[in-house]
């Protein structure tokens, strides 16, 4: 059996058809499309449909076709426009009123995404002109519009048919747009719900894993105390206390994250970020790496002093775990933002881990070795607090060590409020 020459079949198809890229660029057209559009294959291939056919001042064809192509790419579905006015410029430069029945269909690649779009266009201009011509002929042949039958009745029926045709086509296109809009909203909502469910699933799994450690530790200490009469009760109690403290820290951090996730309102007031840093450093022990400061004036934000103090403590704690000998803490005012930078001279954070460090319960191996009692929630909480203040927290570029940068908009209102 002979192999089918699909290229020849495509070129011989009597229906005007082209193949577009997802962005609407012509990849090929058949002879029927060349004839219907009045453009040669050489003129079309490599150009965008909207550029070659910009339409006329009285039609909305280009916008409608562009929206249809976008729906095909986004929804992976065939999109049909039963009757659309899309004016075309003739070779003489005259814009002609034209009507089309269009269909755009996706062709998928190996990755499941839209690789090509089949663009089929059947011209309906003659049909529309015939309807109008019959109505005009009927009107010309009718001497008086007072009769109810004959040609006047035919004209009336033609008028009704034409009006009904346009009305139903417009209604159908409007309904299609509404359905597409509703489907897009449903898809976005479903995606958001899936992300939230996955986030909750990961949170439950991570929480179970991290709570298991201190709970198992407590159970082991108590088991030893019950079964070994020679065990030192002071050692057992000290170890049990450490397990209980770690358990309390994890629960406390989880409660704070729950409040942040729920966008629970908290009272706000003007907060000087430099003063928060000074207060936080004043409470730290002397055995930590040396901490240098550069604190600018005027870094005042509208926020929660308690939560911002927690961010400062978390960032400095994180730096202290990784620093070699020194930490630099800077507060600056830049571009309408109060900026806090905490820079340590440790090994730094690999670029591939710059986002991962803000994930809940994520702890790098060196962090676990430096502080086994950490919860892995400090940076996650800090970023959520930054977002609650309309700000950002990220790992910035640094030649040495790790540099974390917090940016919060400066206070612009003199009144107190609430934070969500």
From TrEMBL:
PROSITE patterns: HIS_KIN, PAS
Location(s), subcellular: Cell membrane; Membrane
GO MF annotation, one: protein kinase activator activity
Enzyme class: transferase
Region (Disordered): 183-205
InterPro entries for this protein: BphY/WalK/GraS-like, HATPase_C_sf, HATPase_dom, His_kinase_dom, HisK_dim/P_dom, HisK_dim/P_sf, PAS, PAS-like_dom_sf
UniProt domain PAS: residue ranges: 2-50
Coiled coil: none
One GO cellular component term noted in the UniProt record for this chain: plasma membrane
Catalytic activity: ATP + protein L-histidine = ADP + protein N-phospho-L-histidine
Catalytic activity, EC: 2.7.13.3
Swiss-Prot/TrEMBL GO biological process terms: osmosensory signaling via phosphorelay pathway
Alphabetical keyword list: ATP-binding, Kinase, Membrane, Nucleotide-binding, Phosphoprotein, Transferase, Transmembrane, Transmembrane helix, Two-component regulatory system
Histidine kinase domain location: 206-412
Membrane topology field: Multi-pass membrane protein
Name of the protein described by the UniProt record: Sensor-like histidine kinase SenX3
Source organism: Actinocorallia herbida
């Amino acid at each position: 059996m002979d192999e089918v020459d699909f290229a020849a079949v495509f070129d011989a198809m009597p229906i005007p058809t082209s193949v577009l890229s997802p962005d609407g660029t012509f990849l090929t057209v058949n002879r029927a499309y060349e004839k219907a559009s009045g453009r040669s294959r050489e003129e079309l291939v490599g150009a965008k449909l909207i550029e070659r056919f910009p339409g006329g001042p009285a039609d909305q064809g280009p916008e409608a076709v562009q929206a249809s192509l976008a729906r095909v790419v986004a929804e992976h579905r065939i999109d049909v426009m039963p009757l659309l006015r899309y004016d075309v410029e003739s070779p003489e430069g005259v814009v002609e009123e034209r009507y089309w029945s269009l269909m755009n269909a996706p062709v998928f690649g190996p990755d499941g995404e839209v690789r090509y779009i089949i663009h089929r266009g059947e011209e309906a201009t003659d049909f529309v002109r015939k309807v109008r011509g019959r109505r005009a002929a009927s009107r010309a042949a009718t001497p008086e519009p007072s009769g109810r039958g004959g040609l006047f009745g035919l004209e009336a029926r033609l008028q009704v048919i034409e009006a009904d045709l346009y009305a139903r086509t417009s209604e159908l296109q409007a309904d299609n747009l509404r359905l597409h809009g509703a489907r897009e909203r449903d898809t976005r909502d479903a995606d958001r719900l899936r992300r939230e469910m996955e986030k909750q699933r990961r949170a439950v799994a991570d929480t179970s894993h991290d709570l298991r450690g201190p709970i198992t530790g407590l159970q082991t200490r108590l088991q030893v105390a019950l079964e070994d009469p020679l065990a030192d009760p002071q050692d057992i109690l000290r170890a049990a206390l450490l397990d209980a403290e770690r358990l309390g820290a994890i629960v406390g951090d989880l409660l704070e994250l729950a409040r942040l996730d729920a966008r629970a309102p908290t009272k706000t007031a003007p907060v000087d970020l430099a003063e928060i840093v000074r207060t936080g450093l004043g409470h730290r022990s002397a055995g930590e790496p040396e901490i240098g400061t550069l604190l600018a004036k005027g870094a005042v934000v509208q926020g929660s002093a308690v939560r911002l103090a927690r961010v400062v403590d978390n960032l400095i704690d994180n730096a202290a775990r990784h620093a070699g000998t020194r930490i630099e803490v800077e507060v600056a005012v830049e571009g309408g933002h109060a900026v806090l930078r905490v820079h340590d001279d440790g090994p730094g954070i690999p670029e591939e881990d710059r986002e991962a460090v803000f994930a809940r319960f994520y702890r790098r191996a060196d962090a676990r070795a430096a502080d086994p009692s950490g919860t892995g929630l400090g940076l996650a909480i800090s970023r959520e607090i930054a977002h609650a203040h309309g700000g950002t927290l990220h790992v910035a570029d640094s030649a040495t060590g790790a540099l974390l940068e917090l940016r919060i908009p400066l206070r612009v209102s003199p009144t107190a409020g609430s934070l969500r």
